[in-house]
Task: inverse folding
């Protein structure tokens, strides 16, 4: 049964697969990077003694990964690029600096 609320307000709803986005991936135990790779994703940032990481995945792959028994959570991340750039500047970043080097005090 389809609700007529969309037509009453003149709205249309359309879902389509977009490009890759950032997702927080947390495993129940162990490093989830192999699972990310198995779903065609790329690890962007490691966190929390390799139990959690930020990965670049498509929405379809992220939703599929949520069903894996070894994965505790897969959640989308929104990053405010302007605030991120200000944070990097505060930390002393220059163009091309690696955030890991900055946080380690070597960048």
Result:
């Amino acid at each position: 049964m389809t609700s007529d609320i969309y037509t009453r307000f003149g709205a249309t709803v359309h879902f389509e697969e977009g490009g890759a986005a950032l997702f927080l991936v947390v495993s129940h135990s162990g490093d989830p990077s192999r699972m990310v790779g198995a779903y065609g994703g790329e690890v962007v940032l490691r966190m929390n003694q390799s139990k959690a990481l930020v990965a670049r995945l498509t929405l379809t792959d992220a939703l599929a990964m949520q069903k894996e028994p070894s994965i505790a959570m897969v959640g989308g991340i929104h990053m405010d690029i302007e605030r991120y750039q200000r944070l990097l500047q505060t930390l002393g970043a220059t163009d091309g600096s690696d955030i890991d080097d900055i946080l380690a005090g070597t960048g």
User: Anything to note?
Assistant: Residues 80-107 form one domain.
